[in-house]
Amino acid sequence: MYKKIIQITCVLLLCIACGSEPVHESLNSEAPVVQLSVTDTIGVELGDSCYVFGYAADAARTDSMIFVLDMSRAQLRKYTPAGEYAGHIGNRGDGPGELVHPQWFELFSDGSIILQDITDLGLYNPQGEWEKHVLTHSGNWPSQHTVTGDATFAIRWHEFIREPPLTLRQFIASYDLDGNTLTEFMTDSILVPVDPEDNNDALNRMLFSHYFAGDMNGNLYMVQRHTPEYRIVCLASDGIAFDTLSLDLPAVEKTAYEISLEKQHVEEYLTGMGSSDVMQWIYEPDSCREPIAGIWLGWEDNLWVLRGTEEIPVFDVWSIPSGEYLYRAELDLSIPPTEFLTFYINPYCKNFLAVHEDEGMVQRILLIEVI
């Protein structure tokens, strides 16, 4: 499993009508293949507390620094490219710049950072000093995130519309650093409570909506989940689709063990959420693996797309916004389905990171080099 099955917050989904925009298809059997290599790790199970992670919720890499957001310790930790501890941003507390339950962060090209805590999205300057609130809320923190320019970002968020009938609305939108909405790229609404016959569809729309990544020109590249197609919709900064990237990949059936494990994980998470009067905590996973398991803006503003059908991590790398298929990147690393490997790729460094979590929930940061 390359991406964690369970997301922390509920999300929804909408099929995007793309009209007659161009479609770039690639038969990539003859595409160049680039090898990826794990060159080092950061993190220990026991020992120096600077290298023991309570829960690594997010990570990023630049040429000069590695950042790891430790949710449990309420710190954004910093490490040198050689893996040496270099300090941290934030501490536990409820004052400006202090953290309670941090969820994720994003880096901008000038080194400034936005950091999502449980009730606030805060802006920090390149020196790690808190500057201001960008967004505040009552605990329904935005999930999933991407930079869309030097001072803009996109997030997936939800809101409750309490006018009858009660509705949970999910949307993906971009913002500036003053918290102003720029563009709404996707919206979807679900009525609650959910009818039993619609339960599984509603759970898919709540928990597994889209993957998306932005480029530095405000464009958004979006993948609708729970479809058998390898399809990336390219949306301009005004939300209008201008292209579609696709590959013709064969369907891959999940094993019975994969299905049972996914069902167990999702249902245990749902039980912990409560509110079973809204929908049933019964989930039936898809029978096939997702063709796309993640999407990021990487080095030289290329789009990195993780395949969900392979036994080892395989990325398709596209030039954007032109839609040219460049090469396939492979990491010769196989992990069992009871462990997790979550990738963190950004445009500020050719190499990137992954967080490996073993069956004992011990996490280590893998430093991955593009050879």
Return the string of H and E elements. EEEEEEEEEEEEEEHEEEEHEEEEEEE
Helical percentage: under 10%
* Radius of gyration over C-alpha positions, nearest whole angstrom: 20 Å
Count of helical segments? 2
- As laid out across the biggest beta sheet, the strand order is 19-20-21-22-2-25-24-23
Assembly state here? single chain
Overview of this protein structure:
It is a single chain. The chain has 371 residues and is mainly β. The chain has a domain at 23-55 and 151-370. The chain contains two helices and 25 strands. Strands 19-20-21-22-2-25-24-23 form an eight-stranded mixed sheet, with no helix packed on it. Strands 1-18-17-16-15 form a five-stranded mixed sheet, with no helix packed on it. It has a four-stranded antiparallel sheet with strand order 3-4-5-6, with no helix packed on it. The longest helix has 18 residues, at 256-273. It is globular, with a radius of gyration of 20 Å. The model is unreliable at 1-20 (pLDDT under 50).
Q: How is this structure best summarized?
A:
The protein has a domain at 23-55 and 151-370.
Considering the chains and any ligands shown, give keywords for the structure.
371 residues, eight-stranded mixed β-sheet, mainly beta, 43% strand, disordered N terminus
Give the topology.
Elements: E1 23-26, E2 33-42, E3 56-61, E4 66-70, E5 75-79, E6 85-89, E7 104-107, E8 113-116, E9 120-124, E10 130-136, E11 143-147, E12 152-161, E13 167-176, E14 181-191, H1 199-207, E15 210-214, E16 220-224, E17 230-235, E18 241-247, H2 256-273, E19 292-297, E20 302-307, E21 314-319, E22 324-331, E23 340-344, E24 352-357, E25 363-370
Parallel strand pairs: 1-18, 2-22
Antiparallel strand pairs: 2-25, 3-4, 4-5, 5-6, 7-8, 8-9, 9-10, 11-12, 12-13, 13-14, 15-16, 16-17, 17-18, 19-20, 20-21, 21-22, 23-24, 24-25
